[in-house]
Design a protein that fits this description.
about 60 residues; mainly alpha; about 85% helix; rod-shaped
Amino acid sequence: MTNFVNRFKDFLKSEDGPTATEYAVMLALIIVAAIGSIQLVGDKVSETFTNVEGKLPDVS
């Protein structure tokens, strides 16, 4: 267990720790933006298909 704690301390002291944290924050922001964009596009596509379906003649 002390080996793990020592390795974790070394990781935080090195330059890799802050860099990895910065990349994780950027990745999280990109994911949030992507999810928001996908949801917005999905809503617009659904609305478009609903409008098209409403304008089609009834075939029954």
